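Protein of interest.
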Amino acid sequence: MRLVMLLLAGAAVSGCTASAKLGTGWLSKDELAFDVKKYPDDAAVVLYRADKWLLEAGQARSSEVLRHQAVAVLREGGFSLAEVKLPFRANQELVELKARVIKPDGTVRELDARDMLSDTNGKGEQDLQAKFFRFPDVTIGSVLEYVSVIRMPWVMSAEDQDTLGTFPVKRYDFELTGARVLVLEAIEYNSTRPIDVTTLDDGRHRLRFTLEDLAPRKAEPWTPHWTFTEPRWAFRVIGWKAGQVTTDWYREWHDVTENFATRVYLEAEPYAGFSERPDLSSCSDAKCKVDKATDWVRQKTSTLGVDTNRDRPLAEAFKTGKASARERAMALRFVLQEAGVEAKLAMTTEAFSRQTARSFPEWEQFNRALVWLPAQPGLPRPMAIDLEAEYCAAGELPPQVKDQPGFVFWMEGGKIGDGKSAGEWVTLDGPPCRAPFVRETHRAKLRDDGTLVDRLEVAAEGERSEPLQRNKRDFSARDFDRRMGFRATDVSPISWHSDPTWGECDRLKGVCGHSVTLNSPQYGVRDGAAWVVPLKTLTPFYDTFDAEQRQQSVRIEATLGVTEEVLELEGPPGFRVGKLPDTITLTAPGASVRVVAEKTKTGARISRRVSFTPGIYPATDYPKLREALEVFRSVRNTVLTFERE
């Protein structure tokens, strides 16, 4: 439900405003009462959680946010809730904090100032400081309650509620009280409870949103981002009302991007000292400049290990050789624009990474920056350039970005310190980057004493190669050797490894790999005139789907792609493989599996392949997906028989 409040009261409030003090009383005994039988498997229950906001827009503009929470500890797993940390920035003020613990016998202990520790080293406005404390003498049956109020000397423009966590919630309250001169907008997701709007006697408006008996978020693998499933709210201030004039603020999407657009297009600070440039002197058209400049950015910097939305001065990023996707996009747009190529920035949300609402503009929905090139001389079609992936050529897009909506924004006119933000939605289209892919190849031989010697080679492509690239960068020789040792014990507890070797790892090509020899004594079993050989040398795969039933939908990420494993197994001299497993092809929602076994001159070749289709699939589709993946995994639990020729 989307709700807009256009406050049509008279002139703006000046001087005298209503009290900015939010109510902070303790909960009553009745409000803390609950039926423990309703939570037989939970370590704790949130008896009450409230997020309350107060926005004042008079001469003394301010915002206050209250957090009130009471938790009952039901099992030892809830003891972690005894530690509380309240972060806030140096230009914010913690105006109230109180806490108490109610023991099972009803004894109440309130914490005092000596129980509250502080971290106040931050000096800049964006530096974090904190108050933190631990509830004392927490036992099973304790109730932990605290109230905090943080004040900031401005009107908070927007807020997107975080998840309530993994514990059940008995009651949750959201409340926003805004000065009558503010134009507010609020939205609720994944809930049938409407936002209640009340006009107070002094002309202010109050929004309330109450939820009861919220189930805990289950810890299941491959679940959708919590924003797709959990009830939540968001609000934003979209204007100020002064007399009969309303000043727009975050009413449109280009308003949301305006602050970042101003920084990127008009301010000199991000580019201070940024003197490096690509050599584009040999280029006579825009396409050449785009290709060379994109390659230059990727060669000069790496995104591996850098948060995608980090935003530091470009000179610093290029000096260290480490840049975020956002910093890369800023640099590429800047050098292209300087070289006469029209280039703009775009923001998008990766597929299935979080729930979005086109009707509710807010910056928090975005999580990836790109460069957008409109059609122009030398570029007959628009082009989107993704700078997160190391291996994509200019215009190629990885699967989590391709065909996603993106918001392109720019500044119209003006010099530094002046200009107006504008923007439009586009579809991010282009040829695909190297697809996510992993191939594991085993060249194994069973000796006549039952020992298996298997040379395993792993080759990864696209985004699947990046974890290996990070390992090669970060692992010591000992770390790498230990990791390969773990792989050997996957085959047998008495297996050992030898000759671990890194293969080609090139971040710009998007490839990486390694190899190791797995040595497994007593692997083959002699059974009269035959050898019985298990297929345990194959990799254990996705044991996260063991559960017979599922309570939540399944999210399959675009980065999974294809996994293929091939085992070429040679039997002892004088033996040939007997009956082979049947060829199996299965298609399920989100995945397809193919298993093929065939004879070779010296033994057998077993291949298994699983291809994933990104998306969010309902829990009712889980049995078919599980069945397909179980077939893929079950190959590892079969045996081959080698008979005398």
Q: What stands out?
A: The first helix runs from residue 29 to 32.
